[in-house]
Every structure is written in structure tokens, then in C-alpha cells.
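Entry type: protein chain
Record version: 2
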Amino acid sequence: MAFSVLQTKSDAHTEEIWACTWVRSVKTNEHLLITGSLDDSVKVWVWDEDRQLELKHTLEGHCLGVNSVTANAEGTLLASSALDATVKFWDLESGEETNVIESNEHHAWKVAFSPDSRLIAVGTQQRKVHLFEVESRKMVGDLDTTGKFIMALTFSPNGKYLATASIDGPVNIYDLQTSALLTTLDGHAMPVRGIAFSPDSSMLVTASDDKHIKIYEVRRLDQSTDVHLAATLYGHGSWVADVKFAPDGKRFATGSADNTVKVWDIGARDCLHTFTAHSQQVTGIAYSPNGSRLASISDDRSINIYNVPV
């Protein structure tokens, strides 16, 4: 089956959708697509190949727009951050709120679970990254980045590193065991909104307001902090808001303020397909757990589901 749009869920939220993630629940075996919106809500959708997207839960509790969502590896626990300066935790099976972290003066902007689901990283508007133990909700680490406003952050799949991106361009990579700053990547001079490690943790892709996508080789970080810039890709007509790797690591996707979603071949360094189904800027993307589907969200309040050949 070729690249195609499988479903458009119009008016999925009542305002712009700013966050999404896709995970498989080990409890129910459901494929759960989670979206967060400026309408203050988080929605949990079940993807079924026959029935397509069906709403499972609407999670209400934030009093300002939701800007980030992340699920643990088991697909049982969700964390969401919002403009109300809180990080809320939700049981994905019941839809119940289970806990909350008040970020107070350090307004949370991005959240991410570690691959082993033990930690959650909270990136703030005051350049701080707080590391919390998920079970106790206690802060166990506090990273002061060299950048400003933290716009994106991600753990490496091997659990060794945390990468952060900021509004002024620098991308920092930290050693999680020592909390040491290993290297700073200065390839972008404008805000970096998206960063993603490859599934084998050997590459880091960055996406920026400068319309460029950069691919860095980071496989030897444990031996040298000299990171090689492998490629710079062009093609989007406006800033690039998000980047995600396919589970097999052979491809990655980007979403942009030019209203498009592009799928790229990591080996050929080439764009394989461009989706043009949104009428406003694309704010986030997420691959399905098996990599055969791709979701995108937008300021047009819709969710698109695509077939992406593997």
C-alpha cells in the first residue's frame, strides 16, 4: 500500500492541538494515540484498523492549554504539561488523574519519560531541566542548560543520554549517569523545536525554525564528545516543528509550519513523500508502535492518520 491519508479526524479538539504521542498498552494491547490541546484537555484515542480512531478518554484537569504529552514504555501511564505550570499524571486504562507536580516559577514546557519508565524529565521556560523519579515524584536531578527556553527534550533509547533543545538554537546532550554536559551542538541559529534519537541511539536529528533538518552521528559519545554533522536536509517552506523516527530507524518524519508532513529516508538523506492534508501549521507527529502508521496534529484542530510503507 502506497503513502496515503487513511483518516482525517476534523475538530478533534475545539482549539489548536499542540501535542501528541502514540503507544501500545501492555495491559489492553490497544494502540493509544494521545493528543493535547489549547482547549485545556487531553484526549486518548484508540486506533483500530477497521474502526480507525475512537475516543477512549477525555482528560480534564488542566486550566490552561496543554503543550506536551508523554507516555511510559508500557503504555499505562501518561504525563501532560500545560501553561498552568503543572505536570499531571494519568492512568491510561481508567483515565483517572493519579498525581500532579507543580512546576511553580519554572513553567513546564516539555515532558518525556525515560526508556525504562523510571524517570520523567521536565523542561522549563527558564532553561532548567528537572528529573523526577516517577514512583515517588521526587526530584532526583536538576540540569541548568546553556540555552534559554527549553523547546524540546528526549532521552536516548539506550538510556544513557538526555538531549535538550532551546529557543536560541543550542542542542545540549547530557550523560544521565553523571549529569555532565557532554557536548553542545550549535548547528542552528534559530529555535530548535524538535529533536529525536534514532532507535539504536546512534543518530540525533534536529528540526529548527531555520527550515533545516540536521543529522548528527552520536554513536561514539561514550568515547568522544566530538559529534559529526552527517547531513543538513532542506525542503520545508517554513519552520520545522517536530521530528520523529520510525521504529525500524530507517526513516523519520517531520512536521512543519508550511502545513506539510514529510517522510525521509535516513540512509539516502532524501524526502520520500510529502503529505499536504492540513490547512494550518503542523505542530506534532507520532509513529504508531509498529511503524506502519503516522499521525499528525495541527492548528487546524484535526488529526490525520497516514499509511507509511515500511
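Comment: The CA atoms of residues 92 and 273 lie 33 Å apart.
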